[in-house]
Amino acid sequence: MQESDPHKQYVGFARVEYEHVRRRFYPAFDWQVHTEPSPRRILDRPVDTARLALVGTAGASVPGQSPFSLGHEGDPSFREIPADADRIRLSHVGYDVPRARKDPDVVFPLALLRDMVAEGDIGELAPRAYSFMGYIPEVDGLISTTGPEVARRLRAEAVDLVLLVPS
Amino acid sequence: MCQQSVGLLQRIFDDHGLATVSITQVPEITALVKPSLAAFVAHPFGLTLGAVADKNTQRAVIRRCLAESTQEHPAGTILDLGFRWPDDLRERQLRKDAP
Asked: Which of A70, A117, A124, A162 would you label with A138, given CA atoms 20 to 30 Å apart?
């Protein structure tokens, strides 16, 4: 799917980030360029009756879990976050983590989603959210292993809708 | 780079038959990955849903995003939800002048 000289088509922040990551962190980095969109499945019930799962890339974890690797090579692993978790830890190389720690909902809105369930906006939360650390310049492990593993878990947990939140 | 990671995960979930919707702060990166449905908010990195303790904006972003999951949109759509940031933090981040 990659174009022969893809950086020439990058615009805006796609170009800024491409050049920044290659120069500072991971010289072999390139964007994953797809020519066709992935298939869309419309949510077939009202949101206020749906089972929702949160998948975030803010580097969230809970006490007792190993932290994400913050090295230049990135980390495609994931952490299971119980839906009732009340202590969210954040680790990431790409944003102001101390600011987000004051209110993890800004990047990993699990507590806010619980409130929205209680208020009737959402039917229910899936038993687990899934957390990645989004700095992943080498994506093979994400695409071949950890992403499909989370997809299988979401299916097994009868999730109606997945909300994906970057940081 | 989070935007690419989210887009790639969303593609995988889409391919497994799940209904999905994502948020993006950088539509030009999401346009490269082409997940099924993304909602653009012009918020800074690290403040995806809104400012610290601004629960009204955070709720509004989620509500708008989830509402689009039930609507007809062609695969690959990136919707602009219209959320904008009140100062220049995001613009400085996009120039790599702020964390």
From this structure: A162
Nearest to B32 among A33, A102, A154 (CB): A33
Instruction: Indicate whether A123 and A72 sit together in one domain.
Output: yes
* Locus of tokens 């803010």: A58
Which residues from chain A sit within 8 angstroms of residue B19, using beta carbons?
41-44, 160-162
Over residues A105-126, the pLDDT tens digits come to 999 999 999 999 999 999 999 9
> Residue A26 in 3-state DSSP?
coil
Q: Please write the tens of the pLDDT for every residue from A136-148.
A: 999 999 999 999 9
Q: Which residues of B touch A165 (CB under 8 A)?
A: 6, 22-23, 48-49
- End-to-end Cα, chain A, rounded Å: 26
Question: Token pair for residue B38?
Answer: 């993304």
- Optimal mutation site among B3, B13, B36, B95, interface A, most CBs of chain A within 10 A: B13
Using a CB-CB cut-off of 8 Å, the residues of chain B touching A14 are 26, 28-29, 32
The answer, as to whether pTM is greater than 0.90, is yes
In a domain, A17, yes or no: yes
Is there a domain that residue A106 lies in?
Answer: yes
Query: What is the domain range of residue A21?
Result: 1-35
